[in-house]
Design a protein that fits this description.
This protein is of the alpha/beta class. The chain has 2 domains: 3-21 and 312-409 and 418-482 and 492-537, 2-enoyl-CoA Hydratase, Chain A, domain 1; 68-283, Alpha-Beta Complex (2-enoyl-CoA Hydratase, Chain A, domain 1). Helix content is 39%, strand content 15%. The chain contains 20 helices and 16 strands. It has helices at residues 3-10, 27-52, 57-66, 72-79, 138-154, 182-194, 213-217, 235-242, 248-252, 254-261, 271-283, 294-305, 317-320, 332-335, 378-393, 414-436, 453-456, 493-504, 507-512, 525-540; strands at residues 86-88, 106-111, 122-127, 158-164, 199-208, 220-224, 229-231, 266-268, 345-347, 355-362, 365-372, 398-402, 441-445, 448-450, 466-469, 474-476. The strands form 3 sheets. Strands 1, 2, 3, 4, 5, 6, 7 and 8 form an 8-stranded mixed sheet that branches. Helix 16 (414-436) links the parallel strand 12 (398-402) and strand 13. Helix 5 runs parallel beside helix 6 and helix 15 (378-393) runs parallel beside helix 16 (414-436). The longest helix is centred in the first third of the chain and has 26 residues, at 27-52. It is globular, with a radius of gyration of 25 Å.
Length: 555
């Protein structure tokens, strides 16, 4: 690296400081928001406690004592250096029509905490066999596919910790036949290998039926003696079909697949040895990482811990998380509690003021911020379109802080109709800019996620690299209490619709169905964004060529 390039890298931001202390005028709204945030936090912790129990005490005891296997979180602790990883979709699988499936029956985390690798981020997809015996439900498949999508989009190696009994047969019609269901997992595995995104599997339990293809399609696979098995049908199926009695070990154990079939590449006597092999495998990936000298890394870490922190406490974000759209405060109060040194270079500050746009750094990473500060007006949408294209031209990642307004009541006034038409065209322009922007995008829903405005603010349909919700967030076509804009006046359906909106628009309802990448606490937002931007930086050094390479085919 040239000295000039190194100097550019370490140059401190000269962006102006956002002077945004809390004022007495904010107190009433702030305290109302804080009470709501505390209630949401309590709900968050209750659900987290439920999820941490996996399939329940009896299932965990059976898993560890009778089956002599480690719990899934203990496996990750053993494989990774610490628990400082980014977990996706913690609450996926809760509150579904077919019951609660804690964490959707599998953990998906992103971490760079492996001692053998210097800052290489990887995706880990780990089955939790205490939940429904490790069988895959529709939400399990959806979570695995989302983790693979994150890996593809961000060029992250995949490590699978496989302990699965295959598909849950009573729901097979929602797991097997369609394009984006179970079979897509194997398609993605092959495509990622062709894109030079490494695929590594550890067989630390059952690999039955569809689960058997994960290790056999991986580039390298490790298998644990006695607890790991790979077969399409287990001993009961063999006996039913042929009358022959066979043990799981003889049918598909580690010795068979390491010595005879060649389905796996490494034989491990115990789980700890398997994870040592996994570390060593990842150390051979020869991934190109951002070229930063050791001194620069140390300097970056010092900055993160000292002068680059925001001037205001992140705990104040709890009172800035709006309990409803009418309780929204100036979004600059939020921005100043997320950015390095509370610095922000605002773009078009006097135009389209209901949308805030500008440049900042978060944990040393330059980002373009797009934040709702009211309804997305014609001027605001044009400004947003301009700014998004500007960031795309300069290869600057985009951060969307979304708090979109509920749908407004329609009017037949000719003047208002013209205003609505102009606004529609401007919003269409912004949607096109967001959809076509090739730079990485991160969305955090800090309040409302409503109507077409949410598309312009890079909602799920617009394919952000990551999308997170604050616990107070609402995700629906409109907000509870605003359904009158969608129904005839004084409709008998209005009360019922508002009741359903209140239930179905909550952040936890959304996250249970995997409409996002997880609910995060406001005070943790800066840390999560820092991790995401680190991941994105690695991706920028790993973009594959247009032409796919041949996938690695096992013998």
């Amino acid at each position: 690296m040239s000295s000039a390039a190194r100097k550019r890298r370490t140059l401190r931001s000269a962006f102006p400081v956002l002077e945004q202390p809390l004022q007495p005028i904010h107190r009433h709204v702030y305290e109302a928001n804080l009470r709501n945030s505390n209630s949401c936090h309590k709900k968050y912790m209750e659900l987290r406690e439920q999820v941490m129990k996996g399939g329940g005490e009896n299932a965990m005891t059976r898993h560890t004592q009778r089956n002599r296997k480690l719990l899934v979180r203990d496996r990750l602790r053993l494989l990774l250096d610490d628990e400082d990883f980014l977990e996706l979709s913690l609450f996926a699988g809760l509150g579904l029509p077919y019951g609660d499936i804690p964490s959707a029956g599998c953990l998906t985390v992103i971490s760079n905490c492996m001692m053998t690798i210097n800052d290489l981020w990887c995706v880990f997809i780990a089955n939790d066999a205490t939940v429904k015996g490790g069988t895959a439900y529709p939400i399990t498949v959806k979570k695995q596919l989302r983790a693979q999508e994150v890996a593809i989009q961000n060029r992250l190696p995949c490590v699978y910790l496989v302990d699965s009994g295959g598909a849950f047969l009573p729901l097979q019609s929602e797991i097997f036949p369609d394009k984006n269901q179970g079979g897509r997992t194997f398609y993605n595995e092959a495509i990622m290998s062709a894109m030079k995104i490494p695929q590594v599997a550890v067989v630390c339990g059952s690999c039955t039926a569809g689960g058997a293809y994960i290790p056999t399609m991986a580039e390298e696979a490790v298998m644990v003696h006695r607890i790991g098995t790979i077969f399409l049908g287990g001993p009961p199926l063999v006996k039913a079909a042929t009358g022959e009695e066979v043990t799981p070990e003889d049918l598909g154990g580690a010795r068979l697949h390491a010595e005879v079939s060649g389905c796996v590449d490494y034989f491990a006597w115990e789980e700890k040895e398997a994870y040592d092999y996994t570390r060593n495998i990842i150390s051979t990936l020869n991934f190109q990482l951002p070229e930063e000298e050791e001194e620069e890394n140390e300097e970056k870490m010092k900055k993160r811990k000292s002068e680059e922190e925001p001037l205001y406490s992140s705990d104040e974000l709890l009172g800035l998380a709006p309990r409803s759209y009418n309780y929204s405060l100036d979004v600059k109060l939020v921005v100043s509690r997320l950015t390095d040194g509370s610095r922000f270079q605002e773009f078009k500050a006097r135009y389209g003021t209901t949308l805030i746009t500008g440049f900042a750094k978060i944990q040393g990473h330059l980002v373009g911020i797009v934040a709702n500060n009211g309804e997305l007006s014609t001027q605001a949408a044009l400004k947003g379109s301009h700014f998004v294209q500007l960031c795309d031209q300069r290869d600057i990642p985009l951060l969307f802080l979304q708090n979109t307004a509920p749908a407004a009541a329609l009017t037949l006034s000719p003047t208002q109709a013209e205003i609505n038409s102009n606004r529609l065209k401007a919003q269409g322009s912004m949607m096109s800019a967001v959809a076509c922007a090739s730079v990485p995008k991160i969305t955090v829903v800090i309040g409302g996620c409503h109507g077409a405005d949410s598309y312009a603010m890079c909602g799920r349909a617009f394919d952000p690299n990551f999308l997170f919700l604050w616990p107070n967030a609402r995700v629906a076509l409109t907000a509870p209490g605003h359904s009158g804009s969608l129904l005839p006046p004084e409709s008998e359906q209005e009360d019922d619709l508002n009741r359903r909106l209140k239930e179905e628009s909550s952040a936890f309802y959304s996250s249970g169905r995997l409409w996002d990448d997880g609910v995060i606490l406001p005070q943790h937002t800066r840390k999560v964004l820092g991790d995401c931007l680190d991941i994105i930086k690695q991706q920028q050094y790993q973009l594959s060529t247009e032409k796919l390479q041949s996938t690695l085919l096992r013998m």
